[in-house]
Amino acid sequence: xxxxxxxxxxxxxxxxxxxxxxxxxxxxxxxxxxxxxxxxxxxxxxxxxxxxxxxxxxxxxxxxxxxxxxxxxxxxxxxxxxxxxxxxxxxxxxxxxxxxxxxxxxxxxxxxxxxxxxxxxxxxxxxxxxxxxxxxxxxxxxxxxxxxxxxxxxxxxxxxxxxxxxxxxxxxxxxxxxxxxxxxxxxxx
Length: 189
Ligand code: AMP
Known about the structure:
Rossmann fold; 5-stranded parallel beta sheet; binds adenosine monophosphate
């Protein structure tokens, strides 16, 4: 199996690059943000709970997020591999993912960290708000909060994968195809 973590701050291009990766490597794409948004749309209990955090730019608590992610993985028994997009976002999530995959005789092959300067992230998110309809993209205060949460809680996840020699930093500025090429080079290495 080919299991990949696609990592990076909000607006780094994880969703865009995931779409191209699924097509090339036939992987199952699991975006925790997308799953939460689908639950909000469906009016589920999980959706209502997640929304209260997402609207403020905060992280949904680990316990809830981990449980949801594991149940999504379990739905895809014949997957060739997974792209984890927006997960793990905290050190406990990273540890839980390793433990969960290990229990299935699986592991993460590589963690690809998209690197984009903060000003560019803000510009991209405000641009995306025009088409995404996402409230958390449209409010500069919420964008700043998401970036601050990333720096404080999510960026340290890199050290978790660096310690396993699995973290590859990717320059995330350029054309979509250029960035995709950089990513594929690391996956195929
Ligand atoms: P995203 O679509 O990845 O930008 O995520 C949107 C929002 O969903 C985040 O700001 C968080 O509130 C929530 N979220 C997504 N993934 C996670 C995660 N792994 N852990 C906690 N909260 C998450």
